[in-house]
Specification:
about 5% strand, 2 strands, two-stranded antiparallel ribbon, 11 helices, mainly alpha
Length: about 250
């Protein structure tokens, strides 16, 4: 079946209007590929006590990269609001990574995260599908799972985000949550212009929030890349400086 004829309408023109911001995404992607190609010996799932931690870090990198690309494509197609909702998930991912890797013992913190995730998944399986005994259980006692899950849960996302610049959580995450939850102010953003019939509702594609989404998309993924490199001891000061310079250029205007 052929693609809908107007699926990509406006994409080329929108790329031209935000060319500098789209090029920044391309440059970041090129640097990520350079890191991946040059560090295959380091970017591995580790054995022993760091297995779970390294697995979480690696999977977060993969998920973050996919969402980075998805956000860029949504912006190209004119879905700015939806791009911001996706960005919210990558901010959450960044916050979790920063919190885990900044702890005195990241291995133990990763276990807390795993236990909490397990409790959430077992709750879903029980309520949605009536499955009482999940097919996989962490290598922990029930008591350890419970106290570790509580240890993660009892630290709010706001607290976990304290070491990040406010642009990520206090400004970005909070605003994007309004759209994600479809609260009254988030819905108000879809009011269109008045015409001869009265108030219109804007449900089409547009340039709205494209600049914000692309700038923040770059910021989040650049911070994730630096975190990954730090964890895997990948020393690329040339790339880190290049990312810093691009970041400065994004705010030059």
């Amino acid at each position: 079946m052929p693609l809908t004829p107007n699926l990509f309408d406006g994409a080329s023109e929108r790329h031209g209007r935000f060319e500098r911001l789209f090029l920044a995404q391309d440059k970041l992607n090129d640097y990520i590929n350079e890191i991946l190609d040059g560090s295959t010996d380091k970017l591995k799932i580790m054995d022993g006590v760091e297995h779970d931690l390294s697995l979480i870090v690696s999977l977060a990198f993969g998920k973050g990269l996919k969402t980075f690309h998805a956000t860029t494509r949504l912006c190209l197609l004119g879905f700015g609001h939806d791009a911001l909702i996706l960005l919210r998930t990558n901010i959450n991912l960044l916050i979790n990574l920063v919190y885990i890797l900044s702890k005195e013992n990241p291995v133990e913190c990763a276990k807390d995260f795993l236990a909490f995730s397990y409790k959430q998944r077992t709750k879903y399986l029980r309520l949605a599908h009536g499955i009482v005994n999940p097919p996989w259980t962490p290598n922990m006692t029930d008591e350890e799972i419970q106290w570790r899950a509580n240890s993660w849960k009892n630290v709010s996302i706001e607290k976990k985000a304290e070491s990040l610049p406010p642009f990520h959580y206090a400004q970005g995450y909070r605003l994007y949550s309004s759209f994600e939850h479809s609260d009254a102010f988030g819905l108000n953003d879809f009011l269109g212009d008045w015409d001869e019939l009265g108030q219109t509702i804007d449900s089409g594609t547009s340039d709205k929030h494209i600049d914000l989404a692309l700038v923040h998309n770059f910021e989040i993924m650049a911070d994730v890349v630096v975190l990954i490199c730090k964890y895997y001891e990948i020393n690329r000061p040339d790339i880190f400086k290049a990312l810093h310079d691009i970041r400065d250029e994004l705010y030059a205007d």
